[in-house]
Structures are given as structure tokens and as C-alpha cells.
Specification:
The protein is mostly helical. 63% of the residues lie in helices and 0% in strands. Helix 2 packs across helix 3, helix 2 packs across helix 6 and helix 6 runs antiparallel to helix 7. It starts with a helix and ends in a 28-residue tail after the last helix.
């Protein structure tokens, strides 16, 4: 490990505590489970919420703090779900943004929001590719820009 790695790890570790991540995960998924659009999907797919919340806390700890407790593979699980739509990923981002906007720890909020945008986009792209790899990928709308879905991005599909 280099000095740069140690400095980066220390800076990352200073973003938040494990307790703050756990609180973010529990608060957000309580909202998602109660949401009219997302609740039926989450509640239909997750059978042990205590276990799932622990897994999600490990996931966000890995993403935000660089811990290595999470070992799952989210993409295949999301790709296997039937009937997902861009609007559901966008709704997820809106709720996530509302949750992180309420956090007193701005460093955690900013880092989590940025990672959530990347993850939602990646999962949405993966979902589309799993359904029809020959169709152009569509973009997710930004929660701050509720205009109709943009045309497929011409470079969004690998060559």
C-alpha cells in the first residue's frame, strides 16, 4: 500500500461512520417499501428484510468506505426481475435523493448521491441489455429534470 492509498483510505474513512451508513440504508428502504411505485416491487422480491438490510448496509459500506464485506452481484438479480421500467429507477433516485438531502453529513450525502446515480444508470443499462441487446439504450432522466425520456444515446451501446 502506498502513501497515496493510505491517504485516500483515511479520507474515505472520514466521510462517515458505519452507523451513519446503516441509518441511511434503513431510512431509505423504509421509504422505498412504503412508496406506491417501489413498495410492491421491493416487498414482493425481499422475503427477509433484516437480512437484506444487513446486505445493503455492507454494500453501501463497501461503496462509501471501501470495506470489503459485500460479496454479492446486484446486476444479475436486477436483470432477472420482470417488467422494470426507467421510471422505477428514476423514482428510486428521487427517494434516495430525498433521503440523502435530509442527512446532516453532507460528505456522506454527496458521495452516496453520486454513487446512487452511477449505480442506477448501470443497472438500467444492464437491464436493457439483458432484455434486448440489439436495441439502443435509453437514458434515465435526472430527478431535477422531469421532461420526457430522451432519445437513446448514440454511444450508449458498446460496439
Amino acid at each position: 500500500m502506498t502513501t497515496h492509498d493510505i491517504a485516500t483510505d483515511t479520507a474515505t474513512a472520514d466521510i462517515c461512520t458505519e452507523a451513519e451508513i446503516q441509518d441511511l440504508v434503513h431510512t431509505f428502504y423504509a421509504k422505498a417499501r412504503a412508496d406506491e411505485a417501489l413498495g410492491p416491487i421491493f416487498n414482493g422480491m425481499v422475503h427477509d428484510w433484516d437480512e437484506h438490510l444487513a446486505t445493503l448496509s455492507d454494500f453501501w459500506s463497501a461503496v462509501i468506505l471501501g470495506t470489503r464485506r459485500f460479496t454479492g452481484m446486484p446486476m444479475p438479480k436486477h436483470a432477472a426481475m420482470p417488467n422494470l421500467k426507467a421510471e422505477l429507477f428514476e423514482r428510486w433516485l428521487v427517494l434516495f435523493g430525498e433521503t440523502t438531502d435530509a442527512l446532516p453529513n453532507r460528505a456522506l450525502a454527496d458521495a452516496a448521491q453520486e454513487m446512487a446515480k452511477r449505480m442506477a444508470r448501470s443497472l438500467w443499462y444492464g437491464y436493457q441489455l439483458s432484455r434486448d441487446p440489439n436495441q439502443p439504450l435509453t437514458e434515465l432522466r435526472s430527478p431535477a429534470h422531469p421532461e420526457p425520456h430522451p432519445e437513446p444515446h448514440p454511444e450508449a451501446r458498446p460496439a
